[in-house]
From TrEMBL, chain A:
Record's keyword annotation contains Transmembrane: yes
Subcellular localization(s) per the UniProt record: Endomembrane system; Membrane
GO CC entries: endomembrane system; membrane
GO molecular function, one term: NADH dehydrogenase (ubiquinone) activity
UniProtKB keywords: Membrane, Transmembrane, Transmembrane helix
Domain NADH-Ubiquinone oxidoreductase (complex I) chain 5 N-terminal, first and last residues per copy: 94-144
The species this protein was found in: Allonocardiopsis opalescens
Membrane topology: Multi-pass membrane protein
Stated name of the protein: NADH dehydrogenase subunit L
InterPro entries: NADHpl_OxRdtase_5_subgr (IPR018393), ND/Mrp_TM (IPR001750), NU5C-like (IPR003945), Proton_antipo_N (IPR001516)
Single GO BP term: ATP synthesis coupled electron transport
Pfam families: Proton_antipo_M (PF00361), Proton_antipo_N (PF00662)
UniProt key word Amino-acid biosynthesis: no
UniProtKB/TrEMBL annotation, chain B:
PANTHER family (alphabetical): NADH-UBIQUINONE OXIDOREDUCTASE CHAIN 4
InterPro entries given in the database record: NADH4_N, NADH_Q_OxRdtase_chainM/4, NADH_UbQ_OxRdtase, ND/Mrp_TM
Subcellular location: Endomembrane system; Membrane
GO biological process: ATP synthesis coupled electron transport; electron transport coupled proton transport
Alphabetized UniProt keyword annotations: Membrane, NAD, Translocase, Transmembrane, Transmembrane helix
Chain intervals for the UniProt region annotation (Disordered): 498-518
Taxonomic source organism: Allonocardiopsis opalescens
One function term, GO molecular function aspect: NADH dehydrogenase (ubiquinone) activity
Keyword Translocase tagged: yes
Bias kind Low complexity: ranges: 504-518
Domain NADH:quinone oxidoreductase/Mrp antiporter transmembrane per the UniProt entry, residue ranges: 136-427
Name of protein: NADH dehydrogenase subunit M
Domain NADH:ubiquinone oxidoreductase chain 4 N-terminal: 73-131
Membrane topology: Multi-pass membrane protein
Length: 651, 518
């Protein structure tokens, strides 16, 4: 029986890992997807000031051109039979030495094309929004150069057909993120946040890099197809280690525990960046990686369970942090952590969760990007104020922002029939349908968090758009220009309709099934989890209304001291304090100690000897000969040490 | 082989240049610089023309020339290059004109009692020796150039450097001389051992052919003689402390040639001489050396993080990078060797660019401070300077898309199949590299300009011309590294054959051969 099952799963692995060569059409031009924004970035960053007048339009055009290619490639893919929708487009050979080869091959399949559409679609909207948002910034051309660079890197990440090329995109988005978080680098806080994001991400990349080494060593290749196809033949321990290392990489990029600390600081970047990179696309790369490498996680129950646990812990932690922040962007960033936690958890449920994870990722891309753009619009009208306690009553002054933000708000808290309702419900139900204690626990955590989500999002909504004015002096809130509001409106439309369209009309789970191997289950509008979620949502909104919706201005204007929990949440649950005491301070001590050892130990022995020999004489000749003797002596001992070490080791 | 003695031309040309420059009147420093630049560009043209003639599929050594030198002892003037030597000669010929351009105003009467033209004449002498040392296929010739190279560098640091330059120059000289002496003993021992095998020669090829026949105990001692000399040169922990001192006191241009090219003689020598002349001894010594390499990687990076002087910081990052190169060399795998060979070139480009830009920074302050703490917010008014600095720094931390990534990635792949635990620990260097580079960038380039400080001038066209090619190559060779690999691969294969190592086979071979996957 198990033999048959194993044979079955091996067969399924072969099916899911199989690909075909691209057969012409727009697919043979898929490299243009990356080439357009890459060229855009190169022109914008090299052209200098002479491109200042038109640079932003070039950047937006490059992104839109890439979107057009993505749409065409998607259409062509739909023309194939479902099991033939996995196509490899060779571009060129990148590295080849001995039997180690890395090709720049692009993989077009339902999963990668979904991402490509999201990245270029939402990306283009955010490019357009930024034309207005960054209009008064002297670095606007550079900003668009970085945005283009990000789009190119992110497309490389999702279109790669092997782990080495994926790693190029993976670190490439890290670079773009670094550059954009630190865009206003004359602010020390922005420069520090940028560096922190890169370094924390590198901890994750360290995991991914080792996973790639292991794959190369075990399978003799780093290409997706062959690795996935043969994953069942490797021993269990190896597979688990690979899975956990991939998860470490995912945690870095997707701000999951324990590598979450950079995301809140990343809000130092301009708001369009927070919308595109730190909400809609880059931070979801970890989810992509786990789903893409699904066959690896399915082959290791330990790794898979760990994924779900990490997701569960982060979705709760993010929501708690989101409840306590007064900075509108940080509150939204906590929410992003939490929502990605949902996706990671879903990806840890195996094939049943993959489609739900990706569907939520897509709708989240719309409503969270919309929420961030709305926050940006509010800041734009309020002299860059981010403290929500200084907002209030803005709905009359910024009606379009209020309406679009409101729609995003209703979508994220899961009000039927908006987008978030369908896709979040899909995840909760996937956990519930496991039918075991683990599944019920996960579903319980997610339901609880659904209530928290409703609370913290309502808190943002009420503090910002309702209640009495608590504006700073000189604030004259006004609606943003059309280049900003039109993208917000389009994202709001997506926030309303995308979820229902994906789940009920397009049958997204079936579309993506050739990659994820999902057993498709149909959406049930009256599931018990759905009803509980609705109840908790209403409760969350109600509590927030009592606390923030009808409180007087003086109570809202300043933050209360708060309970132990509130203060912990404000301090990001002491994640930074932990990092600092466990890693940073010991690290600094180590660096200083090492410098001292090198200066006074290794080198100091040499110089000390020289000094002793030199004695009291100040004459140059003696000095020199003193140096000479002592160096010769110390080097002799050094060499003897090396020789001795070699002899000892060999004995 | 070839009718044109390419290598001899490339060696003699800069020597002629140095004589011309030295013969010029001391008052005409500007003209001396122009002549130096012209000669170095000419050398680059010759070397580039030679490289175009190189055929990767041809014999291992090309452009060979052999003339008897001291026949009584079997010593020859013998030169020839394989793919690895060719790339290193190209690197040297490329860096020299850039260093001349970048260092145009670095040395003047106010900084040294010697005349400015001497500095530039020394650069050309050094160039001739750098080309000769990589081209030498006679072990004695190699030794002679290896030692002679110290002289121009000694004067460039001691005569034209900054700070404690005499101290640094003497330290550099003594460390190197000590290594050189050990090597001399080993070179003579090798000659004697070869004589016992019937052919007393210094020529590399016959020596390599008889490598397996030398008595193993003797071979191990000889190996150590060569290895310690190369380990000091490279430099490897714990014989590295001369490098930070030398870099700190050297002119940035000198540091580029010292760290970018000269130190590569150490790692190049390990590949060419240690591994191929003493294959058994190399395998015997591999474990301790790999441990030393690992210590270098982590120790160099940690100490770099704690530096307050930019030149010293870059020098310590190099200690870390040299650890990676040595790790690749002693992994005895195709990927490790190809990665190490590429690493030597890429490190020359990235570290060269870093030193040059630090030099540009220093020239913008009247007191020429090297201290990190004396700079802040430079990027605000000097975006080109900050931008090139960032690209060079990102290359140094091996960001994918830039060329050092390819070599470091190959070293990791090649090391893991042989020493998995070492490779994993070495990968921590990836995180440390992000710290030392980005923290340096944060402290110097970002933040507000101090109140009342004069705006920092951006790169001049001359400076851009010096650093631009390096930045462009870092990007280009990062996206298209295969031409370099094609040149290096044959040399790597024959080295591995000589060492008697084969790549470990995968446990679950999954590489899709054409037609085997359904």
């Amino acid at each position: 029986m198990t033999g048959i099952l194993a044979a079955d799963s091996a067969h399924e692995a072969v099916e899911r890992a199989s690909t075909a060569a691209a057969d012409g059409g727009i697919h043979s031009l898929a490299w243009l997807l990356i080439a357009f924004p890459l060229l855009g970035a190169a022109i914008l960053l090299l052209a200098g000031r002479r491109a200042d007048r038109w640079g932003h339009w070039l950047g937006a055009a490059a992104s839109l051109a890439s979107f057009a290619v993505a749409v065409a490639a998607f259409t062509q893919l739909l023309g194939y039979a479902p099991e033939e929708r996995s196509r490899i487009v060779p571009v060129y050979q990148w590295i080849s030495t001995g039997s180690f080869t890395v090709d720049v091959n692009l993989l077009l399949d339902p999963l990668s094309i979904s991402f490509a559409l999201l990245i270029t679609g939402v990306g283009s909207l955010i490019h357009i929004y930024s034309v207005g948002y960054m209009a008064h910034d002297e670095g606007r051309r550079r900003f668009f150069g970085y945005l283009n660079l990000f789009v190119a890197a992110m497309l490389t990440l999702v279109l790669a057909d092997n782990f080495a090329l994926l790693f190029v995109g993976w670190e490439g988005v890290g670079l773009a993120s670094y550059l954009l978080i630190g865009f206003w680098q004359h602010k020390p806080s922005a420069a520090v946040a940028a560096k922190k994001a890169f370094v924390v991400n590198r901890v994750g990349d360290f995991g991914l890099l080792i996973a790639i080494m292991i794959m190369w060593s075990v399978f003799g290749t780093v290409a997706f197809g062959p690795v996935f196809e043969h994953i069942g033949e490797a021993d269990q321990f190896t597979v688990t280690v690979i899975g956990l290392l991939l998860l470490l990489g995912a945690c870095g990029k997707s701000a999951q525990l324990p590598l979450q600390s950079w995301l809140l600081d990343a809000m130092e970047g301009p708001t369009p960046v927070s919308a595109l990179i730190h909400a809609a696309t880059m931070v979801t790369a970890g989810v992509y990686l786990i789903v893409r490498a699904g066959l690896i996680f399915e082959a290791s129950p330990v790794a898979q369970t760990t994924v779900a646990v990490v997701g569960a812990a982060t979705l709760l932690a993010g929501a708690i942090i989101g409840c306590a922040k007064d900075d509108i962007k940080k509150a939204l960033a906590g929410s992003t952590m939490s929502q990605i936690g949902y996706m990671v958890l879903a990806a840890g449920l195996g094939p049943i969760g993959y489609a739900a994870a990706i569907a939520h990722l897509l709708t989240h891309g719309f409503f969270k990007a919309g929420l961030f753009l709305g926050a940006g619009s509010v800041m734009h009208g309020m002299n860059d104020e981010v403290n929500m306690r200084r907002y209030g009553g803005l709905r009359k002054h910024m009606p379009v922002t209020f309406a679009t933000f409101g729609i995003g708000y209703l979508a994220i808290i899961g009000l039927p029939p908006l987008s978030g309702y369908f896709t979040k419900e899909g995840i909760i139900e996937s956990a519930w349908l496991r039918g075991d204690a683990f599944g019920f626990t996960l579903a319980g955590i997610m339901l609880l968090t659904a209530g928290l989500t409703a609370f913290y999002m309502s808190r943002i909504m009420f503090l910002t758009f309702f209640g009495p004015k608590r504006w700073a002096e000189g604030a004259h809130p006004h609606e943003s220009p059309g280049s900003m509001t039109i993208p917000m409106v389009i994202l709001a439309v997506g926030s309303v309709a995308l979820g229902g369209l994906l789940v009920l009309v397009f049958h997204f789970a079936e579309f993506i099934a050739p990659v994820t191997g999902a057993e498709v289950h149909h959406f049930n509008p009256l599931s018990p989890t759905g009803l509980v979620a609705l109840g908790l949502m209403v409760a969350g909104v109600a509590v927030a209304w009592v606390m923030y919706g009808r409180a007087p201005a003086e109570k809202l204007a300043t933050a209360p001291r708060g309970s132990v929990f509130t203060r912990a949440a404000r301090a990001d649950l002491y994640g930074d304090a932990l990092n600092e005491s466990l890693l940073m301070r010991p690290g600094q001590r180590l660096a200083h100690a090492s410098v001292a050892v090198d200066d006074h130990g290794v080198d100091g022995i040499v110089n000390g000897l020289a000094g002793a020999v030199r004695g009291l004489s100040g004459r140059l000749r003696l000095q020199q000969s003193g140096f000479a003797r002592s160096y010769a002596l110390s080097m002799f001992f050094g060499a003897a040490l090396v020789v001795g070490a070699m002899l000892v080791v060999q004995l | 082989m070839s009718a044109i003695p390419w290598l001899t031309i490339a060696i003699v040309l800069p020597l002629i240049g140095s004589v011309v420059v030295a013969a010029m009147p001391s008052s005409g420093a500007e003209r001396a610089k122009q002549v130096t630049l012209a000669f170095s560009v000419l050398v680059l043209a010759v070397v580039a023309a030679m490289a175009l003639q190189f055929s990767p599929g041809g014999p291992r050594f090309q452009f060979e020339e052999v003339y008897p030198w001291i026949p009584a002892f079997g010593i020859s003037y013998a030169v020839g290059v394989d793919g690895i030597a060719l790339l290193l000669i190209l690197l040297s010929a490329l860096l020299v004109p850039l260093v001349v351009l970048a260092g145009w105003n670095e040395v003047d009467a106010s900084t040294s009692k010697y005349s400015t033209k001497t500095y530039f004449a020394l650069i050309l002498v050094l160039e001739a020796m750098m080309i000769a040392v990589f081209a030498a296929t006679d072990v004695f010739l190699f030794y002679v150039v290896f030692e002679a190279m110290l002289i121009p560098v000694y004067f460039m640091i001691g005569g034209f450097g900054t700070g404690r330059r005499r101290y640094a120059a003497i330290k550099f000289l003594l460390y190197s001389l000590f290594g050189g002496l050990l090597m001399l003993v080993a070179v003579i021992g090798l000659y004697v051992a070869a004589g016992q095998q019937g052919e007393a020669t210094f020529l590399w090829e016959p020596l390599a052919a008889m490598a397996a026949d030398i008595d193993p105990a003797t071979a191990r001692w000889l190996f150590l003689g060569f290895f310690i000399a190369f380990a000091i040169k490279a430099p490897l922990w714990p014989v590295h402390t001369w490098l930070p001192s030398a870099a700190e006191s050297a002119r940035p241009g000198t540091a580029v040639l010292l760290v970018g090219v000269l130190d590569k003689v150490g790692t190049f020598g390990m590949l060419r001489f240690c591994l191929e002349l003493f294959p058994e001894a190399s395998r015997w010594a591999a474990w301790p050396i790999v441990i030393l390499a690992l210590i270098s990687i982590l120790y160099g990076a940690v100490v770099a993080i704690g530096q307050t002087d930019m030149m010293r910081l870059v020098a310590y990052t190099s200690v870390s990078h040299f650890g990676f190169i040595v790790l690749g060399v002693f992994a005895f795998t195709t990927q490790g060797h190809a990665g190490a060979a590429l690493y030597m070139v890429n490190h020359g480009l990235s570290t060269g660019a870093l030193f040059l830009i630090v030099g540009f920074l220093m020239l913008r302050r009247t007191e020429r401070s090297q201290l990190i703490g004396d700079y802040t917010g430079v990027g605000r008014t000097a975006p080109l300077l900050a931008g090139t600095f960032l690209v060079a720094g990102l290359a140094s931390l091996s960001l994918p898309g830039l060329s050092p990534f390819v070599s470091e990635f190959l070293v990791f792949m090649g090391t893991f199949t042989r020493y998995p635990v070492i490779a994993i620990i070495a990968a921590l260097g990836v995180i440390l590299a992000a710290l030392y580079i980005l923290w340096l960038y944060q402290r110097t380039m970002t933040g507000p300009r101090p109140e009342g400080a004069a705006p920092f001038a951006d790169l001049s066209p001359r400076e851009l011309l010096a650093v631009g090619p390096l930045v462009a190559l870092l990007v280009l060779l990062g996206l298209f590294p295969q031409p370099m690999l094609d040149v290096v691969n044959p040399a790597v294969e024959s080295t591995l054959e000589q060492v008697g190592a084969t790549d470990p086979a995968p446990e679950v071979p999954a590489a899709a051969e054409e037609g085997t996957s359904e």
